[in-house]
Design goal:
The protein is of the alpha+beta class. 36% of the residues lie in helices and 41% in strands. It has two helices and nine strands. The protein has an eight-stranded antiparallel beta barrel. The protein starts with a helix and ends with a strand.
Length: 198
């Protein structure tokens, strides 16, 4: 008889613990479904927002995100430098004069440097001969600064060699807020130009 009583108590105890575990399982299941539903709706909203953009807009969003990441990486990798004379990144915008003294051209070219989207582009603005006579330029894009943090920059520069034009990688180093050095090297053919604010 006592064995039967112990058996019945064990069954009652087993039913109670099974009920507790089943209740916990149901609660975990419901919570999981709620989280999954929440996650799925956020994902759908994100997809919906991107689907409402045109292909060009989507490419621009992706490009801006990657440019921002690259710029952050680029800026973070630069050594600290005294920037008392250099204020903001956009201060590079404006007209800049470069003096040349070679077989092809003796005189100066004035470039108009503009910020366009996330890059800075320099266009030819005016040609000046060695006597100071000026002629309006055609506005040809010559320099593209793709990464710039106010002190250093990287981009591409159009150089002419034996009648051909080439896009070469270049580096920008600000000397002060009115002067920067542009340097490039293309298969052993390189140069350094000093750009002065006009």
């Amino acid at each position: 008889m006592s064995n039967l009583l112990i058996f019945v108590k064990n069954i009652k105890h087993m039913k109670y613990s099974t009920l507790v575990f089943r209740s916990l399982a149901v609660i975990i299941f419901i919570t999981g479904i709620a989280h999954l539903t929440s996650y799925a709706s956020q994902k759908d909203n994100s997809i919906y927002n991107h689907e409402s953009l045109t292909d060009a807009d989507q490419e621009q969003v992706i490009s801006e995100k990657s440019d921002h990441k690259e710029q952050t990486l680029f800026e973070g990798s630069l050594p600290e430098k005294n920037t008392n004379n250099i204020s903001k990144i956009d201060d590079i915008v404006g007209k800049w004069k470069v003096t040349y003294n070679n077989e092809d051209f003796k005189g100066s070219i004035i470039y108009h440097l503009k910020k366009e989207g996330t890059v800075f582009n320099a266009y030819t603005y005016e040609y000046q001969d060695e006597n100071g006579y000026a002629e309006k330029a055609d506005g040809i894009k010559t320099l593209i600064i793709k990464k710039f943090n106010g002190v250093k920059g990287k981009g591409s520069y159009t150089v002419e060699y034996e009648g051909q034009q080439y896009q070469v990688d270049c580096q920008i180093d600000m000397i002060d807020k009115n002067t920067f050095k542009l340097s490039y090297d293309y298969y052993g053919y390189g140069d350094v130009e000093i750009w002065k604010r006009k």
